[in-house]
Design goal:
globular, 7-stranded mixed β-sheet, 14% strand, alpha/beta
């Protein structure tokens, strides 16, 4: 039995999404910038997809700008806001957290080299920031706050709506990376109070290589990519029409299935955690026990190494991860878990299980049985060393 439990890394393309994309991979191959029939058909498809993406996050279609993925959306949000503000770099200040996606953290480090000051907020033992720390970090030079909704490794949710209220009160632009949350739980840009929000198709049963940045009307932002003036001159480059159509279809499907998806993921992850707790000892849940993404479990197993667990599970046909997919093979402790100040033994034994909408209770039972057998063998081997 092959079991895929790594949906935070990527999801399979839903058959309905693939069906929607297929014409634009074959006979509807026009360039949306062309004025002939083929071009007009492609442009109509882009418009429909824009409406579908907007519908998922309760935005207006004209506030959706397509990108090459979540990483581009994140980097554009941060750099675009900074470049749009007519101040010297030293007069600009960004507030973010220690556990953002590398697309945010590395962009912030680049801007630090340019003279921008960045504050990286610390986390508590559950991976949550303190609103008091956030408010204390704000200065008259703060121009941007960027905080992700749900962490890709531990699943912990941040108090985004409360951050949004604070940002609005202080007149600060607020960006949120919602790549992992959208499609798993309700995401409303108005309720969250964000000016910018990043999305990615392949995290919600759409294709890889396409994402979007929500830009609230009136938000000052500069392009990251210059060229032919596509996406209303804010994101140039011929649009990935098939990918965008797939993204739109995935968002439409997510909107229709959201109540069932969220409830199903919450129920199945609770069932899985109960099974693990009742059958396996010396295990710890990393992240917030309640305020977390549906379907995400980050667990540390004492007296084993995560690499050994991953390899043995893979040999049994079960896919999980050691953390963020972008860190796979890096052979280093998770920066997220380090920021939570977890003890060393929990750092090197942590794995991430991320469930999908099509996983079943039978699959989780098989996973726990297999995991239990592997742990027994690995722990016996560790005891002999």
């Amino acid at each position: 039995m092959k079991i895929y439990l790594d949906h935070n890394a990527t999801t399979p393309i839903d058959p309905k999404v693939f069906s929607a994309m297929l014409p634009y991979l074959q006979w509807e191959y026009g360039n949306p910038s062309s004025i002939h029939h083929w071009g007009r058909q492609a442009k109509v498809a882009l418009s429909q997809a824009r409406c579908q993406v907007a519908g998922l996050i309760k935005a207006e279609p004209e506030e959706i700008f397509f990108t090459g993925g979540g990483t581009e959306a994140d980097s554009w949000a941060v750099q675009g806001v900074i470049k749009a503000i007519p101040k010297l770099p030293a007069d600009k200040h960004i507030i973010t957290t220690q556990i953002e996606h590398p697309a945010i953290l590395k962009t912030c480090r680049y801007l630090e080299d340019e003279g921008v000051r960045v504050t990286y907020l610390p986390l508590d033992q559950y991976g949550r920031i303190s609103l008091d720390n956030l408010e204390a970090a704000i200065s008259d030079k703060t121009v941007l706050i960027s905080v992700m909704l749900g962490n890709n490794e531990i699943g912990t949710l941040q108090p985004i709506a409360r951050i949004g209220e604070l940002a609005q009160k202080r007149g600060i632009c607020f960006h949120c990376d919602a790549v992992q949350a959208a499609g798993k739980m309700p995401v409303s840009v108005k309720e969250l109070g964000v000016n910018l929000l990043s999305l990615s198709a392949h995290k919600m049963y759409g294709p890889k290589g396409v994402g979007a940045l929500y830009i609230q009307t009136g938000t000052a932002i500069k392009p990251l990519i210059y060229g032919g003036g596509q996406e209303r001159d804010l994101r140039s480059g011929t649009e990935n029409v098939a990918g965008v159509v797939g993204f739109g279809a995935a968002c439409q499907l997510a909107q229709e299935e959201l109540p069932q998806r969220q409830a199903g993921l919450e129920k199945l992850s609770a069932f899985l955690w109960e099974q693990i707790q009742s059958q396996i000892n010396e295990v710890h849940l990393n992240g917030h026990p309640q305020e977390r993404l549906p379907g995400t479990l980050n667990l540390s197993f004492e007296r084993v190494l995560a690499e050994d667990l991953l390899l043995n599970l893979d040999l049994e046909g079960i896919a999980v991860s050691g953390g963020a997919a972008c860190k796979s093979g890096a052979h280093q402790y998770s920066l997220v878990l380090q920021a939570m100040k977890l003890p060393a033994e929990r750092l090197h034994s942590a794995i991430r299980i991320s469930l999908g909408k099509d996983n079943t209770e039978e699959e989780t039972r098989h996973f726990v049985r297999t995991l239990k057998t592997i742990l027994k063998r690995l722990r016996a081997g560790m005891a002999c060393r």
